[in-house]
């Protein structure tokens, strides 16, 4: 019988090492999780501030045009705040939905591997 060539043995060894490293490597480094949470927090803050700013701008502009100095600015600032909060809630639901899907995916794969 002929033995496998040295290059074939090295290739097989490299494949086994790569598989072992893949099993032992963490799924996601801690720093990446931290940055993604920080990015989410900043996104939500920016959405809220943008809603307030746009509402204030529209109200201030309409007050200047119509001469109703504080009233429309207050109304549109409140409407901008409400829009910002709704956008924040929508973003939080989107993140929660993706986390639930991510958590469900490995469970389904584990169930298939066992069967």
TrEMBL record:
Superkingdom of source: Bacteria
Keywords (A to Z) from UniProt: Hydrogen ion transport, Ion transport, Membrane, Transmembrane, Transmembrane helix, Transport
InterPro entries tied to this protein: Atp1_alphaprobac (IPR016989), ATPase_put (IPR032820)
Keyword Iron-sulfur appears in the UniProt entry: no
Residues spanning the membrane: 45-65, 71-89
Biased composition (Basic and acidic residues): 95-104
UniProt region (Disordered), positions on chain: 95-115
Similarity section: Belongs to the bacterial AtpI family.
Task of the protein: A possible function for this protein is to guide the assembly of the membrane sector of the ATPase enzyme complex.
The protein's name in its UniProt record: ATP synthase protein I
Source species: [Roseibacterium] beibuensis
